[in-house]
């Protein structure tokens, strides 16, 4: 916190998080307000996700060739323009599923370039021995507003409509863009090769680190099982076996509280075996899936969600620190992009498999399968020797 540039970076995260926490509620009701249903919302979310997945590798290459602060500036500016366009469409009553999908696509393109660039910012601003606390501090604003942001967003949308909440999100992206431009971080030294050669070199670096590709392979299964279970089946089980939206809101709030608690844990606990901690704590995501699948009482589900949130945030902070300490700065953008793409690859297939399995199995049975997948992927990852060798620097 004594580093002015890091304080600026942290402030940009705080400003942007206040808008991003309200945006999902506002976007959903912008789609509903123009007469759309689940199908329309699915189209919009797909339009946002696919460009990110397709362009992440290009974003990783660019993050290692250009100024990362300029990439973040342009990316946040693009997201601001996209959200402002949706706000105008909602305010004027001219929103359609197609128009909102175009804006969502532009937001996805921006995310594809900002995500790899953001991964390498903290390592440019603070010494390696302080990276874990720096990464934890960066996550504090987003996790804090996740607890109250959706509630505030729902209130604003119910009183004024979605346009104001979307407009606020656009404004926060714009302010964050200006703050990030002020970092003025130079780009990495060019390799002298073309973008495709840089991409091949990044792939070679990715394959040469067994701790990196094995964690990514395990993450492919873990992330897909988690999203298919918690995000897709969780609300259905809450509606059928608990008290519906009220219960699911409590579960989501418990998970968000766990994320915030996990961030605070990382500010005071500095484990030496970072990689092992990262693998083990991420396994906590199987607990709420198992609790819902077993039909446990709501207090047990809430407790499991809190533990999962704590574990997930500890894993995220530890993983960011590992990447920043054990990957050279000139490769960080590309290797982060390969990891991000790998962890997202199986998500569409997982959604499809759940849809097919639901014709033969109950949602609770599928949730137990998802929990088992996370458990097995974790056990397999713990069999990799380098998991025990990668430790915290300093």
Description:
The structure is a single chain. The chain is an all-alpha fold and 394 residues long. Helices cover 80% and strands 0% of the residues. The protein folds into two domains: 4-127 and 147-183, Growth Hormone, Chain: A, CATH 1.20.1250; 209-388, MFS general substrate transporter like domains (Growth Hormone, Chain: A, Up-down Bundle). The radius of gyration is 21 Å and the shape is globular. The two termini are 18 Å apart.
Show the helix and strand layout:
Layout: H1 4-20, H2 23-33, H3 38-63, H4 68-92, H5 97-119, H6 122-125, H7 131-160, H8 162-181, H9 195-207, H10 210-241, H11 245-268, H12 274-282, H13 286-294, H14 298-326, H15 332-344, H16 347-357, H17 363-382
Concise description?
This protein is mostly helical and 394 residues long. The chain is built from 17 helices and no strands. The chain has two domains: 4-127 and 147-183, Up-down Bundle (Growth Hormone, Chain: A), CATH 1.20.1250; 209-388, Growth Hormone, Chain: A (Up-down Bundle).
